[in-house]
């Protein structure tokens, strides 16, 4: 015997968006703040752009920079570029390196890698607010419709669980 089709669960979707959006926003902002602190206090070393993608999509505009830490080991770090920044392979850039952890570095003058995470949190939070507003308006319209029927003496339609 075929099983009845499952109804979508908008409350679950709204709950997931309402939790995930702000969580991503907070994590992204904490990451951006940590990168800004490193940019302000880290040791400055010279770096060279080894790869730069020139995509129209902001999520794919990565710049890979090679730098040599104070320990002499060559490393790479990835940074995000905005549409106004033009980086080409071979360009010299400045890198801020954590003296306690030379693998942790940020490229000065470029966006933090955490910026897209915070942006996604904003988008998901806005979608959750929009869905909640639509649900509230729909619910209020249903309640007013039922109260209008009850006042006129007509039976109200039974509500769904």
TrEMBL record:
InterPro entries: DUF3592
Transmembrane domains' residue ranges: 117-139
Keyword tags: Membrane, Signal, Transmembrane, Transmembrane helix
Signal peptide: 1-33
Domain DUF3592: 46-109
Keyword Transmembrane: yes
Annotated protein name in UniProt: DUF3592 domain-containing protein
């Amino acid at each position: 015997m075929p099983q009845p089709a499952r109804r979508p669960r908008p409350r679950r979707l709204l709950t997931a968006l309402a939790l995930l959006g702000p969580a991503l926003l907070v994590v992204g902002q904490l990451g951006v703040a940590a990168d800004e602190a490193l940019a302000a206090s880290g040791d400055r070393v010279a770096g060279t752009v080894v790869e730069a993608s020139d995509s129209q999509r902001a999520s794919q505009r990565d710049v890979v920079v090679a730098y040599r830490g104070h320990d002499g080991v060559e490393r790479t770090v990835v940074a995000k570029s905005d549409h106004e920044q033009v980086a080409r392979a071979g360009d010299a850039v400045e890198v801020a390196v954590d003296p306690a952890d030379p693998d942790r570095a940020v490229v000065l003058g470029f966006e933090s890698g955490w910026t897209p995470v915070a942006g996604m949190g904003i988008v998901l939070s806005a979608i959750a607010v929009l869905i909640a507003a639509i649900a509230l308006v729909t619910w209020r319209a249903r309640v007013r419709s039922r109260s209008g029927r009850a006042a006129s003496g007509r039976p109200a339609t039974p509500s769904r669980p």
